[in-house]
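Blinded run. Sample ID left blank on purpose so nobody reads anything into the name before looking at the predicted structure. Input follows.
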Amino acid sequence: MSSQPFFQLRPELQLQERDSQAGTSFTDDIEIVSSASASASASTSASASASQEPYTGLPQQDIVASKHGAATLTLTLTENERYLVERLPVPNIFDQIDQQQQQSPSMVNATIDTQTSPGSNKVLINDNKTLFIWTLPSNHQQQSYANGFSSDEENNHITKISLHDNYDDTTTNNVDQQTDNCFPICQLTWPITIDPSTQSFVNNNDINSGILIYYPSNDILTYYQDIESIDNLKLSNNLKSSLSLYQSIKLGLNKSENEKIKLILNTEPSGIIISTSLNNVFFITLRDSMGKSNLKIKQKLYHQNFRSKTNFILSHILPKSLLNFSLNRNLTNNIVSLKNGPILGRGERLFYMTTSMGHFQSWKLQNSLSLHSIKIVDVNIYDDILNSLQDLYPFANGTLRILDSHPINITSDDNNTNTMVQMLLSSIYNYETNETYYILSTIIINIITNEVTIFSTYRLNTYTSTLSEDFKYKFPKNIYSNQNETANNNNNNNNNNNVISIMISFPNAIVLTQISSKLDPSFTLKRKWEDIISLNDQNINIWGVPSLDNNGKDLYVLTKKFGIIKIHLKEENIEAINDNISFIKSHIDQAIYFTNSNSIDTIQFNLPNDITINTSKDNIESIESDLLTSMNEILFPQDNKFIPTSSSSSYSSLDTQQQDNNNNNNNRFLLLNLQIRLNYYKNLLDFTQINFNDKISQKVKFTLISNYETLNCSLHLMKFLYQDDKNRKYLQQQWIKYLNSQNENEYNLLINKIDQFPKIFINFIYALLFATQQVQQKQEQNFMNNSSIANLLITTIYHSVLEEGENEVKLTQFNMDSNNDQSILPLPWFINIKLLKSINEILFNLKFSYDAEYTDLQQEQQQQEENLKDLSLSLVKTLYYTFNKLKNWVMIDPTERITLEKVFELNEIYSSNHLNWNHILCQLNENIESLKITEYYTDLESLIETLSSSKTKILDIDQLYMKYLTKFAYPFAKTLFLYLINNRELETLYSSPLTNTHTEEAQLFLTSYKDYLQQFFYQMKKDNKFGNVSWIHDVLTNNYKDAMVTLNTISKPNELLDTNTLHLNIAKLSGMVDASNDDSIEIDELNYNNNNNNNNNNNHVHNENMETLNEIQNKLDLIDGMKDIIDGIKTNRYKLNDKFINTELNKPYFQKLLSILQNDNKTIEFNELIEMYSMLNSWQSIYFGMRLLAFSSAVYYVDFESKTILESMLWRRCILLNSVDEFIQSEEKGILIISPFIIYYKNILKMNYIIIKISIHHI
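Blinded prediction complete.
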């Protein structure tokens, strides 16, 4: 059993990382790594991990992955209407490279060559020791690899080349020492076989690409005509005999400046372009114009020997801090972009180069021995871009840096062939926000006049992170478009789309946007579509620079841990969806349907921190609408492609026998469907909490959580009902029976009408309880049936709704504290009269049926008692949470909500039962749990009752009293006092409930306890409550005056005669003691003055007490009169006057009053006593009536008119005591009649004399 009264957060399921067989070890020799071994390793991993893969609802793929990404099937990571992100199958080469990196850490160069291989893309990965090359499977091959890495026998291997070997005689012999500090650069080249007429590849898969390897350690560039020639070197075992298969040249770089190659660009059929760390650019030919191998540095195209005018000005006008920033980022004129243009003819191709300071050149490359390359364009675009930005972004001046450029095939209306269009990516830095803004600029360059025109400028909105120095040399790079770069020829424009997709790669993200495919001025005014694919930068380590396929739609990203990630653009419907899809909605859906163990480590679905969400009302409402739309697509999945559904009509059309035969399948389907939807719904909640928790309204969060609780409850209900348990078979039957009575079935309810589930479920529980009670009225109470119903309620309400919904999601995840709910929120669906009545009822049914059944069976009784404890505890927690939720909801708007009929009924349930809930727990020896629950929910009344019943069960009960008094202060003390008073534990009330009062802590407790008791009685006196006990506290605290006043106040008619007598006598004594403590009063004024006709005492007291004492004395006189009547009638001293015996004043009135005095021993009203005296047959009774009327009428607030009536009544009845004739004839009788009045007036004169004497004394 849980020891916590509130709902504990359950631990999240931990995804286990799959391990695979380690890859083969490195060797220094060249070898062919067979895919068979990779497949065997992958198969082992598959069998080990298949059972661990949780079902996510996505189409299942037999993914075989090693620890670092080796897989045999394509895996979809995410997808929307615009793009598809996949993880491609890769060999376990990544594990091998990672192992070598751990042994000898060094840099890694990696790329996917999409341009040089005929009909296929090749992957190159090398560190400073080894180069790996393999062919990337084509699209149709990526879908099935059951028996190996590739189905193509030619590509069914990985070429492994040792970079230790150096075949140039001029190379330094100590290669090993240099290898650890050097980083070879490898680049594929075109195959030797090309069509001499078209300068394009021969379509023959048997041919092989060549390769260039640059060794920085010795400045050697080596060219192999084809990869097989390297294998031939290995096979021949005679290096000298194979020298004809390769060529090497020494580049002659500036070693004094430690100049190294940074970039190699394949510009075939012309040759290759290399740029160096000193920003020199060389054109190197591989072949002559006849196609014969000819490795040669033909021309130096660019060397940095200038600074732009802008740089010079900046260095003089910027402050030092800004100048340092500019020097680091801008004033170094680095080469940032080398890009190919279209092939112009035999051995000719365009080439574009851009520097960070905006120097742009375009060259016509020629591999002819007699012709030099021609510079077509040579402009500086830095100032043009700066001028286009600095009006809107003044901080661009001094922070602008060109990052990359890309040729774009855009046509204009005049179809001008003398212009070229480039897309430039630049960055500017905002010091105030510490953000970097990335700018896309479309520029038009006139190749005749070298004039530059800025056509459009667009700032990226989804990425603003500042790049660290580690990424400067490679990111952000390559503005990829969906155009084939070899077709970027204005004369061969086949682009029919109105837009061109652009992809910009950053270290941890790919940003996608669009530009117009035509020079349309209106496009710059349109809202640009922009999206971002964020990689998990904690897990992703990108190798190399992403590569774009020849089709212009597939971008390949090579990563260390997760292999190859492919981003595919869906160009077929790009225009149709351009304005119809929401960026937020797209990312919500991706997070929902693709957050699983396969993609969560790769793709970051949460919105990047760089994105600033517009918090305007319209935008927030749009986000809320997207969230609710995604929610409904999960709740009602009829058209949801990610959630399996079946036909409702086919289900409902089955006859009864067929339904029985298919029940198991239907139930399994519903369970699967609900589990999938619940998993997706959790993803929705996670995404909402992380990205929008502080932005969306409480109402939307309430709706999301409420529907989650509904979905979770329905899943738990189905799981519970369809477990193989004989006791649950009855509940299952009742469930189906109830659905049939509502003309409903499970499929329709759970798939199409999930919003109606709460109402149907609650009514089912209510009907179930009623039906069970009907059965049990005819039979004995059945504890097992009640246990099953209790288990059902605990599973569906306590666990699925309260624990997993309210506690884990609402309170913990969304931090929606119950006390902070806004007034617009309704009551949750589970706070329902029928449901809470059912839970309350089953709790008592459990206890009653247990007590009735288990009396003699000791062993079975012990087992069931533990079961009863668990069930009762969970039910009590459920009841307390729901009623506490109701209380908090009412307190938000008590004036309106407290009057609701539903609230009134629920409060009645709580007030009538909450003490009994804890009585049950205490009877089950769960006193500690009861204390925890009542403490947590501040049910002080139950808390104190549990404490009182736990004195013999809890050893440190005193500590608990001290703890609760410290925690709850006066409210706890007040409730404790009320409990002690109601249970007549007055001795404990006036001392304390502690058993040991000798400790220091106990003394502190007693101090607070007495102060609170004083405060309690003070408040009670103001409210005229508990005077029958507060006077004792007054006496004990020597507050005699208050005791006198209180006792006098509580002595009222209709109280017991003896009680009133006691209270009034104590009041009289208290008043006298209080007067004796007053030094201003003489002692002789307190002496009793006895009167022969009266046993009552009159005290000379202080003016403040005199009135109260007189009132007390008068009340005592009144009680004496009542006792006098009782005694007189009992001793026949008084009898009812004969004149009243046969009148209505006898039985209906006199006898009723007499019964109250004699039988009930209670006091009667003042006027009733006067009337009783007047009806007796004794002149003394007339006298007592007159005296009481004269001296005590003021005490009982008898008004003048009533007093006059009573006096008249006494006179009349006095005269009528005897007949008139007897009065005239007998002088004695006349004397008898007059005697009461003589005595009456004599006492009046004596009382007035006493009053005058006391008054003169105090003048």
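Unblinding after everyone has recorded impressions. Residues 875 and 1046 are 46 Å apart (CA to CA).
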